[in-house]
Design brief:
With about 325 residues, the protein is α/β, with parallel strands linked by helices. Helix content is about 30%, strand content about 20%. The protein contains eleven helices and 13 strands.
């Protein structure tokens, strides 16, 4: 879903944006009911091989894709994605040398740099194509609320950032009154485990958050830079679910940020926008830096002018992760 994530979604103080919360609450009831009905009526397709689903309880910004990437690497499995933002219906195996983000989506294109990735709007057809191609196991990126494919293991990723009054589930409301895709207890009831993903500048998981997830096994992972940010002043930008997290992470990693521009999730960067970013960087004598996901959406002519900053999900207890994955 392409949207600018409202900051008030993630605040537990109901006095923040009270009129908006109240006005959107009836719509959230409709959304939750429609999601529950779709799941209840689903007839999951069994591709004949195990499927590990890495999903979300909220709309974007939890760090699902880095976790899916790490788990796919660990088990040596292809990734199955819906390919949000791409126009190809699939099933198609992503070729980073041939496909563009506009064709297959930014996250699949990013992952295809070091993994086998299948894109298919019809998840069942994508799972069948991966199995026919010889896959012995599939890691499905997103799909916790999608009933089309039978899941051997369902893992939900939760944002571990709980500073100040920020809480990954806000005040517990469902979209559009809050960030949840479905009520928290309902989503956790279908999960086999949760991964709390800590930002670079958060030292430890919040005990209250761990308690809120105590109905399922919880693993803790943290984002780690794959390399240091570019030296010297930089103008950063990001079109992700929570762009402010990218800004905080860059600063925490030692990046000399002269300015930072947030954009909506999956934002399509056009020439005028990129020229404005370049002009802003020139004012500071700075370079341009962004996430891997954003870099995948850049026009080829701009990729040499912007530095991608890769991060990885690192699990604190790898033995516990291996024991969980062994179930698949």
């Amino acid at each position: 879903m392409k949207l600018s994530t409202p900051r008030w979604w993630y605040l537990r103080r109901t006095r923040v944006a009270p009129v908006m919360r109240l006005a959107l609450t009836p719509l959230s009831w409709i959304w939750a009911a429609a999601t529950a009905r779709r799941i209840a009526r689903g007839r999951p397709f069994d591709p004949g091989i195990p499927v590990i689903c890495i999903g979300n309880l909220t709309l974007g910004g939890a760090g699902k894709t880095p976790v899916a990437r790490e788990i796919a690497r660990r088990v040596g499995a292809p990734v199955l994605s819906r390919g949000y933002g791409g126009v190809l219906p699939g099933p198609v195996r992503v070729d980073p040398g041939r496909h563009t983000a506009g064709e297959v989506g930014d996250e699949p294109l990013m992952l295809a740099g070091d993994l086998t990735v299948w894109v298919s709007r019809d998840r069942a057809a994508g799972a069948r194509a991966a199995a026919d191609d010889g896959a012995r196991l599939i890691v499905m990126d997103d799909g916790h609320q999608n009933p089309d494919v039978a899941k051997t293991l369902s893992i939900v990723v939760v944002d571990g950032e709980t500073r100040d009054d920020e809480w990954p589930f806000g005040d517990g409301r469902v979209f559009p009154a809050g960030p949840l895709r479905e009520p928290l207890k309902v989503g956790l009831a279908r999960a086999d485990a949760a991964v709390v993903l800590l930002p670079i500048d958060v030292a430890a998981a919040d005990p209250e958050l761990l308690a809120a997830l105590s109905s399922v096994p919880v693993l803790v992972a943290r984002l780690r830079p794959a390399g240091a940010p570019s030296a010297g002043p930089q103008v950063g930008f990001a079109g992700v679910g929570k762009p402010w997290k990218v800004e905080r992470s860059l600063r925490a990693a030692g990046c000399e940020l002269a300015d930072f521009w947030p954009f909506p999730d999956h934002h399509a960067y056009d020439e005028p926008t990129l020229r404005r970013l370049a002009e802003r960087a020139a004012q500071f004598g700075a370079g341009l830096i962004t996430t891997e996901k954003d870099w995948a959406r850049l026009p080829p002519a701009w990729r040499d002018r912007v530095t991608p900053w890769p991060v990885r999900a690192v699990f604190e207890d790898e033995a516990a992760l291996d024991a969980l994955l062994a179930r698949a």
